[in-house]
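[agent] plan:
  1. take the single chain provided in the ticket
  2. run structure prediction with default settings
  3. attach C-alpha cells to the ticket
  4. add a short note for the reviewer (M.T.)
[agent] executing step 1
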Amino acid sequence: MIAKKTILYFKNKILGDVQFKYQYGISKKINREVEALIAVVVCNDAQSYMASVVGIFQRKTVLARKYWVNLFMMFFILILYSNLHANIEKFKTVHLKGKLDPPNYVLQVTKERIIASKLPFYSYQIVKEYKQPSHKWFLEGVLLYNDSLYVSTGHFGESKLVKLGLPYMNIINEVTLPGHYFGEDITVLNGKLYQLSYKSHNGFIYDPETLKLLGNFSYKGQGWGLTTDGKYLIKSNGSQHIDFLDPEKNYIVVKTITVKDPYGDIEMLNALDYMDGKIYANVYLTPYIAIISPKDGDIVGWISLQDLDRKEFNIVEHHVPNGITHNNKKELLVGGKDFSKIYQIKLKPIVLPEK
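[agent] step 2 finished; step 3 output follows
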C-alpha cells in the first residue's frame, strides 16, 4: 500500500489541503475509502479503479443517506478522474524514469518500480486450488504443517485459528479469539504454534495438534506477519522493519532489518513465510510478494500475484492477496482476504525485454 504521506500528497494536491475527512459531515470511514481509491489510481490499474468507484456507491453503509452527500461524492470522484492522472504522470516522470532519487515519502510498489529495479521478477502457475469452507475469512495467515493447513483470520469479534485437513479442506478443529483481539499471522517453532494479534501487543501459543492454548507472549508494536528461520520468530509490523524475536530470551528483539530495494524502503509488509534462507512478504494492498534477504533486508526478487482470484480483487474492500506458506516441493500456497480459495502455485520467471 502507499505510505500515508504519499496518499496525503496526492489528496492535498487535489483538494488544496482541505481537511476533507472532517468536512460536510462525512465519516472517517468514507475518508479511508477515498484514500484507498487514490491508492488504486496511483497503482495505475484502471480496472480496479472503476471497480472501486462502483464499490463506493454500492455500499449503502459507507455513504450517509443524504442526497447532497451523494452529490458531493460524485463531484469528488469526477475531480479524481480528471485531475489525478496528471499529478501521477508528473510524479512518475520525476521518480520512475530510470534514476529514482528517493523522495521524502515512501513510493508505492508498482510494476514500473519493480522492472526499473532489475531484480528477478516472477509470475505464477496455479497447480491446485483448495476451496475454503468460508469465503468470508479475512485471511491474515496461512501455514502448512504436518500435512494440515492452518489459517488465521482477522476482524474484531470474528478472529479464528482453524486447522484444516487436505485435500478436502475439512475443518478438524478451530478456536475463536476473544472479541477484543484481531487475529494475525501464524507460524510453528519447536513444536508450538504461535499466533499474533494486531494491536494488543499479545500473542497466543498453541499445541498445533489440538489447538489447546498453552500460553501467551508479548511484543512491542503491532503484529502483522510471522514466520521463523528455525531459531527466531520473525515478525513484521506493517512498516518497512522486520524484527527477530528470541523465544528463549522472553521474546526480546535480537535483530531488526529494514526492507529496501535499490530505490528506498518498502513499507506495509504483511504476512510472512521463510523458505530456502529467504523471507517472503506480502506487501499490503498490492498483488506483490517481496523476496527478502534476512541478512540485511535487501529485496532480492519479486513475485506478482496479479489476477489471482481476480473476481474478488477490490482494493476498497481490501480483497487482496495475503498469507504465504510452502510445501516440500518449494511450491507456494497463497490466499487472500475474503478470497474463496487457497492457491498452490509454481513460480515462473518473467522475462523482461532488454533496453
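[agent] step 4 note for reviewer: Residues 25 and 78 are 20 Å apart (CA to CA).
[agent] ticket updated
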